[in-house]
Amino acid sequence: IIAERTIGAIDGFSEVDVQDLFVVPEDGPYQAGIGYFGIYLDHGDVVEEENETNNRLQTEITMVLCQEDEYEGNSTLGDAALIELATTYDELSVCPEGEDWFCVADVTAGDYSATATFALAEPNDRGTDLQMQVVTANDGVFDRIVGFDLAIADNAAVEFSLDETSDVCVRMFPNQSRSTNSYSLRINGLD
Predict the structure, then answer these.
(1) Nearest 10 degrees: CA dihedral of 23, 29, 95, 86?
(2) 166: which DSSP letter?
(3) pTM over 0.90
(4) pLDDT surpasses 60 at 97
(5) 101 dihedral zone (left: phi>0; alpha: psi -120 to 50; beta)
(6) Which residue, among 51, 39, 46, has the nearest Cα to 4 in the 3D structure?
(7) Residue 127 host element (H or E)
(8) DSSP 77
(9) Quick check: 78 and 99 in contact, CB under 8 A?
(10) For residues 187 and 108, is the Cβ–Cβ distance under 8 A?
(11) What tens digit of pLDDT does each residue of 18-68 get?
(12) Could you give the CA distance from residue 173 to residue 97 in angstroms, rounded to a whole number?
């Protein structure tokens, strides 16, 4: 039981509007996936009723858990995590209401690709989709957008060209603000 509330008695076939807020404790134990949220009225059948079978309401919910990755604190361009070209970074995750920024410093002129590998999770594809934006920056200050992938699909990829040396930064963010997903990220030069 997460929380208990007491309201006064009501007459049969009457309705009462109760609006309440409770917080699910952070310390679990929870697992991502399908779960159930239930509300019980007159839990111990203390109040004698003509119908004792209508005191429970439950609904199926999808539990989405977010595990912070080792780069957390990289939620703005100014706080971007520094990474290297041609290196795959695994076990990254974007938490609800968040975004991740990664930058490669002093990338020379040429053709490149940024790829994020992830899978959409059933049953809420849009809720687990991640978006990618690639920008250039100089001394941590935004310069210009060089590409983006906003498709609803597994993975995200952007190919882009640089005319001069600059920092290349990737912004990863969820399609829906309350969503989360884990992913791998790699920025490569194209041959």
Answers:
(1) 170
(2) E
(3) no
(4) yes
(5) beta
(6) 39
(7) helix 125-128
(8) G
(9) no
(10) no
(11) 766 555 666 666 666 677 777 777 767 777 777 777 777 787 776 666 778
(12) 9
